[in-house]
Amino acid sequence: MATETARLGSVDSGSALNGRHHKAALYVFSFVVLAHWAEHIAQAIQIYALGWPLPEARGVLGLPFPWLVKSEWMHYGYALLMLVGLIMLRKGFTGRSRTWWNISLGIQVWHHFEHLLLLLQAITGNNLAGKPVPTSIIQLLVPRVELHLFYNTVVFIPMVVAMVLHLRPNAAERAEARCSCALPVPARA
Asked: Residue 89: which H helix or E strand, with range?
């Protein structure tokens, strides 16, 4: 047990986060990511299934708090939180799960850049390509609602794959793990 505790709480900074607190941190981070993604799905349902006009389709939280949907600061803050979370929790992953987590992180780097671009336009009033509202690069080709639903989906899917692999590591990944997230190995009959 002492060896396990030493392994899970190694010396580098962030070791507790990626060691003994990794599972709890992943649950909290996953809840935040899933809730945000659900907001994008709710907005898409409002538009495409319920036929609401775009200004009325604000997700769930945007209905009582419409300023949330219009706030570039809030959108940027979430993109930054997501990027920081992916970076901070990365060291807890090994092997195949680390590869999938890195894919999610790489996509989020671009997603964050797009939100930074939107925020800078909102702050300066100088919009990309002379558009009347802040516009991201890919938004020049794809409407904003669909684009951000896509971004959040393609960040979320590899993140989920990473977490499933993290919970079910192979023997080499289990030996390398610094946390106790892995499910117990089933007993052989």
From this structure: helix 72-89
Question: How many domains does the chain fold into?
Answer: 1
3-class DSSP assignment, residue 151: helix
CB 134 within 8 A of CB 72: yes
Residue 6 is predicted with a pLDDT of 42
Cβ atoms of residues 6 and 163 within 8 Å: no
Tell me which amino acid residue 123 is.
I
Q: Which domain holds residue 109?
A: 11-176
Would you say residue 2 lies in a domain? no
Give domain status of residue 5, yes or no: no
> What are the CA-CA distances from residue 140 to residues 27, 37, 46, 127, 133 (Å)?
35, 22, 23, 12, 12
HSE-CB for 12 with a 13 A CA cutoff: 9
pLDDT: which is higher, 186 or 132: 132
Q: pTM for this one?
A: 0.87
Q: Is 20 part of any domain? A: yes
Mean pLDDT throughout 38-45? 93
For residue 4, tell me if it sits in a domain.
no
The position carrying tokens 């516009």 is 135
Encoding tokens for residue 24?
């709890």
Q: What is the pLDDT of residue 111?
A: 97
Q: What is the distance between the alpha carbons of residues 14 and 178, in angstroms, rounded to a whole number?
A: 11
